[in-house]
Write a structure and sequence with these properties.
With 168 residues, this protein is mainly β. The chain is built from no helices and 14 strands. The chain is 0% helix and 49% strand. The chain has an eight-stranded mixed beta sheet, with no helix packed on it. A six-stranded mixed beta sheet has the order 2-3-6-5-4-9, with no helix packed on it. The chain has one domain.
Length: 168
């Protein structure tokens, strides 16, 4: 199953991103503000890797409003990890499936690769095998990679705060 993404002209201001780590589960979530309103698919798109890793895209009115990430085993670390040089600003839409327009959730199993820079401030998730992509910024610190047929191929999280090291 592939996840189609429609690319539209960028809004005047890209949504901001607020990250939150759950120190007990090590789940990272990113919430966008302002949240989208309108018509379109609402629900979740779950991408599950064979190793137990997963990404959940929270979709409202056809727009991604949040992301949750859990990766086990550990994320592969790189000395440096930089997003692609060429990034286009755009709005994106996750279209409803014509065959099942009322479908509120979608679950996809695929190879899921996760990597981060040494400081874990930049994360990159690749869905499936490596392929040619274009990179789209749909929020200030969130980028999508789309393959040649505009299907989701990857996700970048930028400027992620450090994981909390001490419990209160």
């Amino acid at each position: 199953m592939k996840i189609p993404i429609q690319v539209e002209p960028a809004d005047e201001t890209a949504p901001t991103v607020q990250y939150r780590w759950d120190p007990d589960t090590e789940i990272l979530s990113a919430q966008l503000s302002p949240r989208a309103t309108g018509k379109g698919m609402s629900g979740s798109v779950e991408v599950e890797g064979a190793d137990g890793s997963w990404l959940i895209l929270d979709v409202t009115a056809g727009r991604i409003n949040g992301v949750e990430v859990a990766v086990w085993p550990e994320v592969s670390k790189r000395n440096t990890l930089l997003p692609p040089n060429k990034i286009e600003d755009a709005s994106i839409r996750v279209p409803s499936r014509q065959s099942q327009p009322g479908l509120a959730s979608l679950e996809v199993e695929t190879a899921l690769t996760a990597e981060a820079d040494e400081a874990e401030r930049v994360f990159h998730f690749q869905l499936g095998r490596a392929r040619g992509t274009r990179t789209v910024r749909f929020a200030r610190d969130l980028l999508l990679e789309l393959d040649g047929t505009s299907h989701l191929a990857g996700l970048w999280l930028l400027n992620v705060p450090p994981f909390p090291t001490a419990h209160a």
